[in-house]
UniProtKB/TrEMBL annotation, chain A:
Residues 134-435 form the NADH:quinone oxidoreductase/Mrp antiporter transmembrane domain. It is found in: Cell membrane; Membrane. The lineage of its organism: Bacteria, Pseudomonadati, Pseudomonadota, Betaproteobacteria, Burkholderiales. Pfam families: Proton_antipo_M (PF00361). Belongs to the CPA3 antiporters (TC 2.A.63) subunit D family. It comes from Pseudoduganella albidiflava. PANTHER family: NA(+)_H(+) ANTIPORTER SUBUNIT D1 (PTHR42703:SF1), NADH DEHYDROGENASE (PTHR42703). This is Monovalent cation/H+ antiporter subunit D. The keyword Membrane applies. InterPro entries: CPA3_Na-H_Antiporter_D (IPR050586), ND/Mrp_TM (IPR001750). Keywords: Cell membrane, Membrane, Transmembrane, Transmembrane helix. It is a multi-pass membrane protein. GO terms for cellular component: plasma membrane.
Automatic annotation (TrEMBL), chain B:
Its main location: membrane. This is Na+/H+ antiporter subunit C. One of its GO terms (cellular component) is plasma membrane. It comes from the Bacteria. It is a multi-pass membrane protein. Pfam families: Oxidored_q2 (PF00420). It is found in: Cell membrane. Signal peptide: none annotated. The chain crosses the membrane at residues 6-21, 28-51, 71-94. Keywords: Cell membrane, Membrane, Transmembrane, Transmembrane helix.
Amino acid sequence: MSLAWTQHLVVVPIVLPLLCGAALAPLTQGWHRLKFAAAYASALALLANALALAALADGGWPGGIGVYLAANWAAPFGIALVADRLSAGMLVLTAVLALAALHYAQPRWSRIGVHFHTLFQFLLMGINGAFLTHDLFNLFVFFEVMLAASYGLVLHGYNVERLRASLQYIAVNLVAALFFLVGTALLYATTGTLNMADMAQRIAALAAGGQSSTLVLLQTGVAVLALAFLVKAAMWPLGFWLPTTYAAASPPVAVMLVLMTKVGAYVILRLWLLLFGDGAGAAARYGYEALAWGGMATIVFGAAGMLATDTAGRLAGYAAIVSSGTLLAVIGYGQPSLVTAALYYFIASTIAIAAFVLLIELVDRIRTPGAAMLALTAEAFAVEDTPAEPKGRGVPAAMAFLSLAFAACALTIAGLPPLSGFVAKFGMFHALVNPGPDAPAIGPAGWTLMALVFVSGLAAIVSLMRFGVRTFWATEAVAPPALHAAEVVPVAALLLVSVLLTVQARPVFDYLARASEDIHRPALYIDRVLGTRPVPAPLPANVPGSASAGEAP
Amino acid sequence: MEAVLALGIGIVFGAGIWLVLRPRTFQVLTGLMLMSYAVNLFIFAMGRLAVDRPPLTPAGTMADPAALADPVPQALVLTAIVIGFATTALYLVVMIGARGLAGTDHVDGEEPEE
């Protein structure tokens, strides 16, 4: 028996960026064309691979779960990489954003400092690894890979503002990493395993066995562990560092930071449904309330932040906070049909905010110092705008593109029709009001969540409109900006993806519904992960050691 | 032994937290290092405290799980040390850069106004 070759696709998202990044490290900046080509090819390959994984998970593999046993050791002892519908979907999203960021960085950002592409590939490796691994300690390792690369990338194009933001960003994340370790240690001490599938089984047994003191220790451990993810997911009050960092980072890096916020929320989603699902006995639904109300507080914080700021970069940061708060609140609300809509929202908002982040820099070019000054003083001194004569040509193509793209981003982030943000929010409202036959009817928490999602959309449209009006309807003569084709294409592509998501909402929703069903059914997942047997070694049986190497205990 | 170790870890971790909250970069860095020492000790202790037990089976003997030390925390703590050390070194570089650019070692990059 040998391993089907498709099984190896699971490990590609980790190995490929690692090799590519390592290969690019020794090249100097003189080779930037080659570096860009290699990095771009790697990202394209990752996209193709992720699409293949999604197709395999959605029909190729039994139960929709592909398990890769690293080093051919059976699951609780070896490191198992698992690709299911949800993680494959996240890999696709990562690859799409990476392509856009790389494309955008090509004319300018990737040349400002050395090793942009190397760090970028390592960042991809960390993110992909965090999506695929199902082992707490490896999750820590991949988190650290991702964070270490992101520290370098946030500093990319070194200036005082970036340094200042990085000092906070790195310190906060280093402390969060230490909490991650403490939580993992407590979980190991109480369950005796680090594999998530094995741990889910043992927690159910612990809860059934009535060892309440161990259970309390375990819950403490999980709470400490969750701190690390919640810092990443920027739950209030742990998300204070986020807007400053996002505003300071260069645009292609900020795109990946938007995704990294979602990695924290993704891990919470996965871990909570697996460990504290309804099958966990006394431990079932542990911490759901805290997640729900914490998530709602995050939405309030993000919405207030959006209204309070007038810097575009911080606006994007607060929008990311709102979107991750919504996801956390939905996880805590604990209704499977709602998770489907929330996953759709997750994808739609990530793409929209990413496009917005890229757009900010392009828009900044038309905000001449005079216009910026006017925008600043408009409120303080109530200056009445005196309409100036329209100068020169009509609407140049660049301006039309920028304003249309901005409008599309604003509509999606705020959740207004016709784009994907509306579909996502409508889906969430629908799921909240119609919880289904075997779910409890909508309670005060549900109504609060609905109101907050609604109000946050309102806050988003108010603040984005304010920014748009000051920028595009400024009466000062605006110089049509010089846009590089390589900068326009990724923004347009991301918006196209957003439109596609809207047009093809049905199949995407169906896929996400199946993904949500999978993660709500931990028994099947545990069976698949623990039941996958290693492949017998192809060595002849008389070689000493070969038999024991093939059969892990 | 457990109480002494627990107290020791607690004191080191507490000192680390206090230092991390200080306004000077050197203190923050020292605090991070103290915290990571405490965390490493904590991981090491999670496999129960035992003295003089081998982590591996000696050659030619039967494996007896009760007589062995848990090897997993030792492997984990090794990884945690390496990663913690690397990230702390990285932070040190950022701090030196910040000191050079901003001309002050205050974490905000500027001296507070008196």
